[in-house]
Amino acid sequence: MYFVNDDRFEGEYKDDLINGKGVCFYANGDRYEGEYKDDALVGIAIYYYANGNRYEGEWKNSMKNGKGIFYYANGEKYFGEWRDNQKDGFGSYFFPNRTRYEGEFKNDKRNGKGAFYFANGNVYIGDWKEDKENGKGIFYLNVGPWRGDRHEGEWKDGKLNGKGAYFAKGKKLDGFWLNGKLIN
After folding, report:
1. Residue range 63-86: average pLDDT?
2. How many CB atoms lie within 10 A of CB 38?
3. Considering the chain, what is the average pLDDT of its residues?
4. DSSP codes joined into one string, 76-113
5. Contact (CB, 8 A) for 128 and 110
6. pTM of the model
7. Distance of CA 171 to CAs 34, 59, 141, 148, 149, Å?
8. CATH class of the domain comprising 97-184
9. Among 48-52, 126-130, 146-150, where is mean pLDDT lowest?
10. Strand, coil or helix: what is 24?
11. Which of 7, 53, 103, 108 is the most core-located residue (most Cβ within 10 A)?
12. Are 30 and 45 in contact (CB under 8 A)?
């Protein structure tokens, strides 16, 4: 069946509505393969985007809802929970350079508790807000002469900010950081 906007559907109908399995070929080049209920995308399905992205997972009310994997054309990948087309709940986000984030998402951003694993072995574990380190966190250094050192303290907008302590080779340095720089 063809629609006024040049979308095309192949699949099952019931009571003049799309119900059951089917494939929709969208005029923009996107394609949905999966279940429908009363014209809405539902259940487990695969959505192919014309730009090379792909989503495999659960749908409800024609939106990504539940668990799913989103493969980005640039090599990034998100595996986790979705709510109303946004990353929401627990998930893992993988980058092509071997870094990854594992933790909580809200409103399509890293929000809540999480850990970021850098390709060089460094790790940040702590609070996140709006995709940045915000709140209490621990940054573990795992490269060069700093291997085994760590910073515990407050973060704001991805930088050390507020009270904290730096632990190195069995010693502790208490201090106050402002925008990533030790000032006291």
Report:
1. 98
2. 10
3. 95
4. -EEEEEEETTEEEEEEEEE-TTS-EEEEEEETTEEEEE
5. yes
6. 0.91
7. 58, 52, 15, 12, 10
8. mainly beta
9. 146-150
10. strand
11. 103
12. no
Digit-coded pLDDT (tens) for 17-29: 899 999 999 999 9
DSSP string, 112-152: EEEEEE-TTS-EEEEEEETTEEEEEEEEE--SGGGTT-EEE
Is the pLDDT at 146 greater than 90? The verdict is no
pLDDT of residue 1: 62
**How many Cβ atoms are within 10 Å of 141's Cβ, its own excluded?**
20
Structural domain boundaries in the chain: 1-73, 97-184
Give me 26's structure tokens.
């969208």
* DSSP label at residue 29: S
Domain 1-73, classified CATH 2.20.110.10, yes or no: yes
